[in-house]
Specification:
single chain; alpha/beta; two-stranded antiparallel sheet; 12 strands; globular
């Protein structure tokens, strides 16, 4: 099966409001299509008569050894897609040798997810007004063996998402962000027509006043590597390195935040030039084929994150569905490596693509 077949199957299995929450974008939803279009504009330039009898897709990402340069992006409430939620996703990621980034709004506990995982885990954080809550999550992540922290920086507030407003979307009964106190999450429940409870919650709980100087507060509380997710400019990439950031996720938040922004794939070369190898780079968004992984590496990424396709697999058949989605991507990537004449991940260069 292709990833698009899993998408169709997931759409059949999920309720309309949940599907809209997972698939929808902000504003005109232009960015949902723009991310894909940016990758489609890139064409591969294969080399021939290269020994590809053995291709090595393995790589290291902030010390984590991966079967291929692929991870799962942080997404809240996996139980929206399957009752096992993040525990099933963690099992599948471990089986595939992929990284899983767990959302602070996961619907299973950090500890249960870690118990199910055989691969590396990172924890994603939003900067909440209640810093003691963040400090507690950081401690729990360290104790459970998570290997890095990912701070999402493109969401001082949740953008207007028309589908959620139209549906009056709220987190369904029986699903909770179990790692965060119920009082902090209360605004995300109780939907009403014409309002997104997710946006209401962000206005209440997200701290929009944070600056680069605030990163020191996290640094004082952990020795884990710190990754920023949602950087789209060379200026911010350079600042991140100066502030000691270990990795950047070049991301449009799945087309769910700033409408009409530059797609992540278009922003990546500028960021790679600004960083100049001083920190690791991950491209997030619109990855739908193994060839997209190759394109991202040619643009300067060290790895990619997939988002919605993991949830499509989860909705399809739990852990086995996520495993199948990852297997499709990794099999396609292995074929692309051989047919491009690239025997090792680190051999992908900018000369391997052309802009169409």
């Amino acid at each position: 099966m292709t990833l698009l077949e899993y998408e169709a199957a997931a759409r059949e299995r999920l309720s309309g409001p949940v599907w809209d929450f997972l698939e929808g974008g902000s504003g005109t939803e232009s960015m949902v299509q723009a991310g894909r279009a940016a990758l489609d504009r890139l064409q591969l330039r294969p080399r021939v008569l290269v020994d590809v009898s053995t291709c090595d897709s393995g790589c290291s990402l902030l010390g984590a050894q991966l079967t291929a340069p692929v991870g799962i992006a942080p997404m809240a409430y996996h139980q929206l897609a399957h009752p096992e939620g993040e525990v099933a996703t963690a099992r599948a990621a471990g089986e595939a040798g992929a990284l899983l980034t767990v959302s602070m709004f996961a619907s299973r506990t950090l500890e249960d997810i870690a118990a199910a995982a055989t691969g590396p885990l990172w924890l994603q954080l939003y900067w909440l007004r209640q810093r003691d809550l963040l400090a507690g999550l950081i401690r729990r992540a360290e104790d459970a063996g998570y290997q890095a922290l990912v701070l999402t920086v493109d969401a001082p507030r949740v953008a207007h998402r028309p589908r959620d407003v139209r549906n009056g979307f709220a987190v369904p009964a029986g699903i909770r962000a179990v790692n965060v106190s119920p009082s902090v999450m209360s605004a995300s429940r109780g939907g009403q027509a014409g309002e997104s409870a997710i946006a209401r919650h962000s206005r209440e709980q997200f701290d929009p006043s944070i600056t680069w100087e605030d990163l020191a507060w996290i640094r004082e509380r952990t020795r884990l590597p710190l990754v920023l997710k949602g950087v789209l400019t060379g200026e911010d990439a350079d600042l991140a390195v100066r502030y000691g950031i270990d990795g950047l996720v070049v991301s449009n938040h799945g087309g769910r935040q700033l409408d009409f922004a530059q797609p992540a794939a278009d922003a990546l070369p500028e960021i790679a030039e600004a960083v100049a190898g001083r920190c690791q780079l991950i491209l997030d968004g619109a990855i739908r084929h193994g060839a997209d992984i190759a394109k991202a590496l040619c643009l300067g990424a060290d790895a990619v994150f997939i988002g919605r396709p993991a949830l499509w697999g989860l909705a399809h058949s739990g852990a086995s569905g996520v495993s199948a989605v990852l297997r499709v991507l990794l099999d396609e990537f292995a074929e692309v490596m051989a047919l491009m004449g690239v025997a090792r991940v680190q051999d992908f260069k900018s000369s391997g693509i052309v802009h169409h």
